[in-house]
Design a protein that fits this description.
about 120 residues, mainly alpha, 4 helices, Butyryl-CoA Dehydrogenase, subunit A, domain 3
Length: about 120
């Protein structure tokens, strides 16, 4: 059975569209492009990898900012360990600390798009 593309209703694999924010839509566009490249049997380029890292970092930064605003809006209730806002804030910040989403990828991506050696991070 052939793998369905990202727009297919009979999903076997591929990215799933998320419209929860600007970072999510940027990530979707990048994921869809990489999916098409891989599905065509072509090699994924360093530029595509850089765009994926940049999109992921940007989405994580947007999520961090949104939860920071909600956390602050929640006042002292947000500091209660079991409160939903506190859990959401912790969860989002843990995801953003993932090695593949670090802010360092802004600089690495910039190096790629300037034609410079990105270093070992994208290898």
């Amino acid at each position: 059975m052939a793998a369905a593309g990202p727009g297919s209703s009979a999903r076997v694999g591929g990215p799933r569209r998320s419209t929860s924010g600007r970072g999510a839509s940027v990530s979707w566009v990048v994921a869809e492009e990489i999916w098409r490249t891989a599905a065509a049997g072509e090699e994924i380029t360093i530029e595509q990898i850089a765009r994926a890292r940049l999109a992921g970092s940007y989405a994580a930064d947007c999520a961090n900012q949104a939860t920071d605003w909600m956390y602050r809006a929640g006042g002292t209730t947000s500091i209660e360990w079991e409160h939903a806002l506190a859990r959401a804030w912790r969860d989002v910040h843990v995801v953003a600390q993932n090695f593949s989403l670090l802010p360092e990828y802004y600089m690495v991506g910039g190096r790629v798009f300037l034609g410079l050696d990105p270093g070992p991070k994208l290898a």
